[in-house]
Amino acid sequence: MPTPKIRHLAIFVRDTEKVAQFYQKVFDMELVGSKGPGKSQYLSDGYLTLAILPHSTEGSVPTGLNHFGFSVTDRAEITQRLVSEGVGEPTARPADRAYAEFRGCDPEGNMFDLSESFEETRRPDLVSANRAR
Fold first, then answer.
1. What pLDDT, in 10s, does the model give residues 44-73?
2. Overall number of domains in the chain
3. Does residue 52 fall inside a structural domain?
4. Do the beta carbons of residue 50 and residue 23 sit within 8 Å?
C-alpha cells in the first residue's frame, strides 16, 4: 500500500483575505477557491492545498496546527518577500532540527519552517532518533 500523503492543511485566521494575499505574494501560491470576502480562501502550491479559514471568537477553538514547512530554492528571495510584507526575517532553527533551517510566521503569527533543500539538508540521523522517541 502506498504511503498516505498530506494534501491540505487548514489554519484559522482573523483576516482570510490578508493572509491569503500574503501566501500568494511570498510563496507564489495560487488562489484555487474562495467562499467570498471574509470567508474561507483556498491556496495551492500545485500539490498541497492550504485552507485559510475564518476564526471566530464564539465557542471554543480546538487545538490546532503548530507549524508547517516550505521547501524553497532561494531563501534570500523568500526572506526579502517576508520583510517587504512586514513580518520580519525568519530566524535560524537549532542545529538539532532534522528538516528545516529557518522559522518564519505569517501576519497572524502562524509559524512555518523554511528549508532550502529539504531532501539534501534533512538529517537522517535526527529523523531516526525522533522516530525512536
1. 999 999 989 888 767 665 546 778 888 888
2. 2
3. yes
4. yes
